[in-house]
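Table S7 (text form). Paired inputs.
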Amino acid sequence: MSSESNLLPLIVEPDQLAEFIDDPQLLIVDVPLKAESYTAGHVPGAVYLDHRRLLRGEGQVPNDVPDEQALSALFSALGLTRDTHVVAYDDEGGGWAGRLLWTLELIGHTRYSYLNGGIHAWRADGLPVSTENIAPQPSDYQAELLHRQVLIEREELAERLDEKNFAVWDARSPEEYRGERGQNKHLGHIPGAINMEWTDAMDRERQLRIRDYAELITELETQGLTPDMEVITHCQSHHRSGFTWLVGKALGFEKMRAYAGSWQEWGNRDDTPIEK
């Protein structure tokens, strides 16, 4: 689908979404960190998604991408069709919503938007919330990993670390990046990775919306990340980096990719290079 046919822009403000809220093509998905956020009040018509369904949930890298069968079951349960425009949001500034949108990109479903600031921004703008539990209308969606280029596997990442115009954006905390904190076999960071914690891209004065684009681009460029580069983002489980992937896309970084294995995979192996 071309972006011209999209109902809404990639980053949508609460008042924009409110205008389209009754559009039958729209599927609004609330994918909160805490399930109570949905029951306490959500965007009217929004369906609830348990964020754990975006993860494989088993094996050595449980945070990896689910297989196509699991993704087909997930998106069929949500009622996704080829014509659906998905608007995702959460209760924590965009981590799980970003992971959902990245997953849609991975399966080639490019009609999607992020509600800037999520439920916090919606409530702060005085828009109505609903406590009704919305049951999705199930569909028969066959998910295939059609846009694999949005994903990078550990082997390719390890091989390309020295390339020009190739960079790694580590969205974890500075303590994790420096190897002072973490639950993994090995602590530290991928050699050459640039650290900007995911919350540093959020505007705390504006309900965790994405910060001013010009400021963000300047900060990232100062650190060595420019829009023409191929940028790989990761965190511990590709949850926080769901948001940084989305931010990169919003800022016009055309070659944003994510390493779903993240530090959970990299930091638990003995054959991956690590810096502290």
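Next pair, protein 2 of 2.
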Amino acid sequence: MNKKIIISGGGTGGHVFPAIAIANALKKLDPSIDLLFVGAEGKIEMTKVPAAGYPIEGLWISGFQRKLTAQNLSFPFKLLSSMWRSRKIINRFKPDAVVGVGGYASGPLVKVATMKGIPALIQEQNSFPGITNRLLGSAAQKICVVYDTMDRFFPKEKLIITGSPVRQAIIDLKGTKEEAIKHFGLNPNKKVLFITGGSLGARGINEGIAFHLEALKKLDIQLIWQAGKAYIDWAKKQVEGETDWILATDFVDRMDLAYIAADAILARAGGTISELAIVGKPAILMPSPNVTEDHQTANAQSMVDKGAALMVKDKEAKEKLYEAIHTVLFDKDKGSILSKNIKEMAITNAAERIAAEVIKMI
């Protein structure tokens, strides 16, 4: 009989794209495997997973807000609904194992699976795990992590350092800088800063860049500015009359070419760090302050401690962001050190490692 595996979680691209990479690796190991994704209704996984060729079912679930909000009043009902639906999905699909990649939907699904004695593996890409994975850690058989300090949160005997899965296009990075520059309509004789805050955008990054636009223009550089869907209209107003050196967009469909074109990168400090390590360009990390337990700051600090990136917090952007950008673009010695150190952290076969652990677990 074919092996059956459920992959659950999502909510952001940082969870969804690694999940798809794990699914692809499982299929490569054993093409006969039956895979089913379980995500959160209305979230990015409900479109990205079918586009990758996999079936998905949605749960009525969302995160619990740390502040007192009306949304929290519905949380117990959503949790009960998701537990009930997870049980129905598991009883019908009869998986041999489940994989949780973090995010809202992984909690109910993995919890129900472990209660029924089904082997479970969870993947944690941050140096400070979210509450969902921390709650699931005691029940999971295996916990795949990126950082070597995770025994603070999970049983040491369950931990496996695998790295975090990255999209194949980023691992391959096919194409020349000349082709990448041409794709974005840029000047081949000027340095390029690639700014990315994710598909929705990052307020702190966007406001920091807007504040320093006049000073950045004097550096005679170019920006690929992925402002995100929530900020693109605002960003286009900021760059009116400056489109000869700034490409402002809500979404970059060719992230591989953006990374190739860039001389340096400004990004958040979530799952993107695994991509930055593979790319190996000097990077500035601006951790999101709006995530559980401020885990992105912990991620960024871990990189700073290894001499692998610079960090500028959102609240420091007006005072420190320009200097950091100048450093990663024009300080050759510092840029070389950052590039070398971050590249040493790259793991290109994380998805394959995790897939192999899932098969072993079955």
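Residues 4-164+349-361 form a domain with the Rossmann fold fold (CATH 3.40.50.2000).
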